[in-house]
UniProtKB/TrEMBL annotation:
<feature type="DNA-binding region" description="H-T-H motif">
    <location>
        <begin position="48"/>
        <end position="67"/>
    </location>
</feature>
<feature type="compositionally biased region" description="Basic and acidic residues">
    <location>
        <begin position="1"/>
        <end position="17"/>
    </location>
</feature>
<keyword id="KW-0238">DNA-binding</keyword>
<dbReference type="InterPro" id="IPR050109">
    <property type="entry name" value="HTH-type_TetR-like_transc_reg"/>
</dbReference>
<protein>
    <submittedName>
        <fullName>TetR family transcriptional regulator</fullName>
    </submittedName>
</protein>
<dbReference type="GO" id="GO:0000976">
    <property type="term" value="F:transcription cis-regulatory region binding"/>
</dbReference>
<dbReference type="InterPro" id="IPR001647">
    <property type="entry name" value="HTH_TetR"/>
</dbReference>
<dbReference type="GO" id="GO:0003700">
    <property type="term" value="F:DNA-binding transcription factor activity"/>
</dbReference>
<dbReference type="InterPro" id="IPR009057">
    <property type="entry name" value="Homeodomain-like_sf"/>
</dbReference>
<dbReference type="Pfam" id="PF00440">
    <property type="entry name" value="TetR_N"/>
</dbReference>
<feature type="region of interest" description="Disordered">
    <location>
        <begin position="1"/>
        <end position="25"/>
    </location>
</feature>
<feature type="domain" description="HTH tetR-type">
    <location>
        <begin position="25"/>
        <end position="85"/>
    </location>
</feature>
Length: 217
């Protein structure tokens, strides 16, 4: 059963103040951009709030106006990373549907290029993502995006084959999401060549999984 964040945890991790003016939005963007740069530079080490403030050119007090702690900053980054996937998948639904297996293979390749870039450019955030997944109180943060991604994968498959039943499309969407995510996490912990090989393997698995359901020549 999916859980919702308990009130205490949500309050502790939510941004303190939502930016309502353009100036405030720019300040938040500076904070998040600084945190992202530092996580990329420092790898597995979590940047301190002081380091984030210094990189953003702000006082620590200014950072605390918007975020209660560094964990809230990293979680907001994780949310932004997770929210980028629906747009990437939705883009593939907007193009003309494939008429044969080769065209579908090309669509899969385009999707992999776009989603792979999101993983590679944000590899330093993966410990945060894994922590969210493994924490029962934080998992709902990822669940809200997982449901969107699964639905979009299902819609993408039904874009290729409108006759595909909803239950089958959703089941395949779950497998596509879970297999792709777990394998990429493994790949990111290896060298780039291994990551690329794992990407190719996942693409092959995807094609083997879904092609029989698409009625393509």
């Amino acid at each position: 059963m999916k859980r919702s964040l308990d009130r205490k945890t949500r309050i502790a991790l939510e941004p303190r103040k939502q930016p309502r003016q353009q100036r405030s939005s720019k300040v938040v963007d500076r904070i998040l951009d600084a945190a992202l740069i530092l996580t990329r530079e420092q790898g597995t080490r979590t940047p301190t709030t002081l380091a984030i403030a210094q990189r953003a050119g702000l006082s620590v007090g200014s950072v605390y106006q918007y975020f209660p702690n560094k964990e809230a900053i990293l979680l907001d980054l994780a949310r932004r990373w997770l929210s980028s996937f629906p747009e990437v998948i939705a883009k593939r639904i907007k193009v003309s549907p494939p008429t044969n297996r080769e065209e579908f293979r090309q669509e899969v390749r385009k999707l992999f290029i776009d989603t792979s870039r999101l993983y590679l450019e944000n590899a330093s955030l993966m410990p945060v993502i894994e922590a969210i997944s493994g924490n029962a109180d934080l998992r709902p943060i990822q669940n809200e995006y997982d449901d969107q991604i699964i639905a979009l994968y299902a819609a993408w498959l039904q874009h290729a084959n409108p006759a595909l039943e909803d239950k089958i499309a959703s089941r395949l969407g779950v497998l596509m999401m879970e297999v792709g995510h777990v394998c990429r996490l493994v790949g990111l912990k290896k060298d780039r060549r291994t990551y690329d090989l794992i990407e190719d393997d996942v693409e092959t698995m995807w094609l083997a999984l879904v092609t029989p359901y698409l009625n393509l020549d």
